[in-house]
Each structure stands twice: as C-alpha cells, then as structure tokens.
Amino acid sequence: MKRGILLVNLGSPDSPNPKDVKRYLGEFLMDERVIDVPLWARNLLVKGIILNTRPKASAKAYKKIWWDEGSPLIVLSERLQEKVQELVDYPVALAMRYGSMAIKNGLQELVDKGCTEIKTIPLYPQFAMATTETIDVKVDELVAEYFPQLKITRTPAFYHREDYINVLSKSIAEKLDGLDYEHILFSYHGVPERHIRKSDITNGNCKMNGKCCFKKGSPQHEFCYRHQCEITTVNVAKKLGLKNGTYSTTFQSRLGFDPWLKPYTDRTIERMGKAGTKKMAIVTPAFVSDCLETLEEIAMEGEEIFHEVGGEEFTVIPCLNDREDFAQVLANMVEEWATTKKPLTV
Ligand SMILES: C=CC1=C(C)c2cc3[nH]c(cc4nc(cc5[nH]c(cc1n2)c(C)c5CCC(=O)O)C(CCC(=O)O)=C4C)c(C)c3C=C
Ligand SMILES: [Fe+2]
Ligand SMILES: [Fe+2]
Fold first, then answer.
1. What digits encode the pLDDT tens for the residues 144-181?
2. Contact indicator for 94, 7 with CB cutoff of 8 Å
3. Are 71 and 12 in contact (CB under 8 A)?
4. Which atom of ligand 1 is nearest to the CA of 54?
5. Where are the domains positioned within the chain?
6. Is there a binding annotation on residue 189?
7. Do residues 160 and 345 make contact, with C-beta atoms less than 8 angstroms apart?
8. DSSP 3-state assignment of 183?
9. Residues forming a β-bridge with 187
10. Measured distance CA(230)–CA(117) in Å, rounded
C-alpha cells in the first residue's frame, strides 16, 4: 500500500482571453452542483445566455489580475502544493475541479508514482454543493470509471479545525497590526439560497433567518454552507477578541436573479461607507487562494465602491495562499489520516 495526497482547487481559464474564459465558464457553469437546474434549463441559461454575454466582461476582469506566471489561483495553489510536499512523506499532487489541470490527471500522476490509497483534500474551508461536494462526486465518478483499484479517503470541510482558525486569525492580525480600522467585513463567496435548502438533510431546519445557523448541535450544520461561514467568522472574532458591532459576515459574487445568501458584500460596503465608516478591512475566508473574486471584485471593485461613498481606507487581507503555517494545517490533515488521530476543533 502506498499513500498519496491530491489537493483540489476550483480552477481558472488557461488564459484571460475570451475564448479560453468561455471554455472554462462553460465547464464550470454546466456543473449541476453550480447551476442546479434541470439539464434543458441549464443548457438554455448557460449555453444560450451566459456564455454569449459574460465571457468578454469576465476576460477583461481576468486580464486585470493575471500574473506573468499565469492565473493567481493556479500559481498560488502550485506554491502551496510545493510547501505541503516539503512537510509530508507521501507524494502530493494538485488538480483543479474545472479547466486543464483535471482531477483525472492528478489521480493518474499519483497512480504513476505507485499510489494505491489517496486522500483528496478540497481546498475549501466551508462545505457547499459547489465546493466540497462537486469534487467528492467527481472523484468518485473518475475512480469508478478509470481507477477502480484506488482507495479514496475524503477530507471534510475544515472551517472548524482549531489549527485553521488559528492561522486565519494570525493572517488577519498580521495585516491589521498597527492599522486603525473601524469595521472588518468577513466576505464569503455567495451561493443561491436554494443550494442551502437542497443540502438541508433535516428537510426544513434551515430558515435562512440567521437563527438556525447558530442553533447548537443541529446535524444539518455539517452540510450548511451558511452555518459554516457564520461560524468561521464567530471563531475568528473570538480568537482575535473582536468586539460585537466591529465585524460582520457578508456574501459576494452573485450571478443571475435568484435570491443569494444575504447580506450582500457590495451593498454592505456601500451602506457602511454612506453611514460614515471611513476605515474598513475585509477578509475573504471562503477562498484559500487569491483569485479573480478577491483581487478584482473585492480589492478593485469593492475599494472603488467604498471610496465613491466617502470611505477612506480599505484594507484587503490576503488569502492564506502559500503561507507556511497553512501548509502545516494541510500537513496535519495528512498526518491525522496516516495515524487515525482526530483533529482538534473549536
Ligand atoms: C469559494 C467557493 C465558491 C463557491 C461556493 C462558488 C459558487 C458559485 N460560483 C458561481 C459562479 C462563478 N464563480 C466564478 C469565479 C470563482 N468562484 C470561486 C469560488 C466559489 N464559487 C472562485 C475561487 C472563483 C475565481 C476563479 C479564478 O479563476 O480566479 C465565476 C467566474 C468569474 C466571473 O465571470 O465572474 C463565476 C461565473 C456560481 C454560479 C456559484 C454557485 C453556487
Ligand atoms: Fe464562484
Ligand atoms: Fe442554517
């Protein structure tokens, strides 16, 4: 038996050109766990509307954040993989759920190195159909079709691991050290509210009213993205000793006309700026690697909104990216797998 690790992130287009962005968005948005409507409706919406309207604007946005080495999300994930590799004794491969760095290739790379037991680690702290679940399901499909000999161990969302909360808190404290700020926004990628109801294993516990997500001990929390985002904020706030009223949770990056998780980040930035907040900090804990949604939507568009309504200082806290201490969190997960030790949670 030989063990191997597969880190999996979201993915990016091959280049910031409209053709590559269109191909990438086509694969991403045709995932039934992302646009969760029947196939005929998804075809109509994605191929008939979104792919004919969005790629040009998205490509323009990607161009603004693209690095000489490539997509920030991919480059940062590769750097993280190298750091994890230095910390563990098993081969570590990297794959993306969408785009050219396919999960199938990542599994093949590990198989070629002789691995027979693979731990997959989705690089998402919070569970959602569009994050952890779509990776787990894709891995299962690929294993059934191409690698039936492999034994796969899944890794659940890690939002409540103590080591993760410590590292996230430390990254925020380091950036804000010596800075004067009035409010810190915890902005998570949004999902349509419908996704939360679909993942609700208690069939109706989640009322989307802000209370169910804080109820202690509900079995539904394991699959509730909203709960996991809220609790990430609460635990970091506790760790950093943030006072009530000086921090809040919001959701960004809506697409389409359905209701998405609220409050919305852009509207909150605008409202707080209008209400007189001058110095705001913002952290994006749903993203492990800086990407279009943090570097463009938050650091560029978000800052612009804030300044337009009278805000003065807008401090963006980087994602965990390839921090050594974050690589150590992932290495801890590997160690627990190898020794069957249980993680410490908060
Ligand atoms: C962090 C978790 C993410 C969830 C949950 C998520 C859900 C989700 N996303 C879309 C639509 C788009 N997302 C886009 C970019 C994007 N999304 C995530 C992460 C999550 N998405 C990341 C890390 C990125 C950036 C990728 C990069 O290359 O940097 C985009 C593309 C960009 C754009 O055109 O604006 C779309 C579209 C939906 C519908 C969804 C639903 C659950
Ligand atoms: Fe997204
Ligand atoms: Fe909930």
1. 999 999 999 999 999 999 999 999 999 999 999 999 89
2. yes
3. yes
4. 34
5. 3-158, 162-316
6. yes
7. yes
8. strand
9. 250
10. 34
* Ligand 1 atom at minimum distance from 190 CA: 5
- The residues near 142 (Cβ < 8 Å, ≥ 6 apart) are 103, 104, 107
Asked if the 162-316 domain carries CATH number 3.40.50.1400, the reply is yes
Which residues on adjacent β-strands are paired with residue 153?
119
The three-point CA angle 29-133-317 to 5° equals 80
Residue 293 is assigned to a ligand binding site: yes
The enclosing H or E element of 237 equals: helix 225-240
Which tokens in the block code for residue 298?
């938050």
* Cβ-based neighbour number of residue 12 at 10 Å: 28
* Tokens matching residue 163: 């080591």
For residue 35, name the pLDDT band (cuts at 50, 70, 90): very high
Give the per-residue pLDDT at 205. 67
Cis bond upstream, residue 156 (ω within 30)? no
Question: Rounded to 5, what percent of the chain is helix, strand, coil?
Answer: 50, 15, 35
Residues 6 or more apart from 232 whose CB is under 8 A from it? 125, 126, 159, 160, 165, 168, 186, 188, 285
Q: If you count DSSP H runs as helices and E runs as strands, how many of each does the chain have, helices first?
A: 12, 8
Find the 323 Cα to ligand 1 centroid distance in Å. Answer: 23
Atom of ligand 1 nearest to the CA of 72: 29
Task: Give this complex's ipTM.
Answer: 0.93
Task: Write the pLDDT tens digit of every residue in 69-80.
Answer: 999 999 999 999
CATH class of 3-158: alpha beta
Q: Which one-letter amino acid corresponds to residue 178?
A: G
168 CB near ligand 1 (under 6 Å): no
185: helix, strand or coil: strand
How far is residue 3 from each of residues 73, 213, 277, 316, 339, measured CA to CA in Å?
Answer: 26, 37, 51, 38, 12
Q: Which ligand is nearest to the CA of 204?
A: 3
Residue 96, φ and ψ in degrees, nearest 5: -120, 145
Rounded (5°) CA angle 177-183-187: 95
3-158 shares its CATH topology with 162-316: yes
Q: Establish whether residue 50 lines the binding site of ligand 1, counting it when its CB lies within 6 angstroms of any ligand atom.
A: no
What's the farthest any 2 CA atoms get from each other in the chain? 61
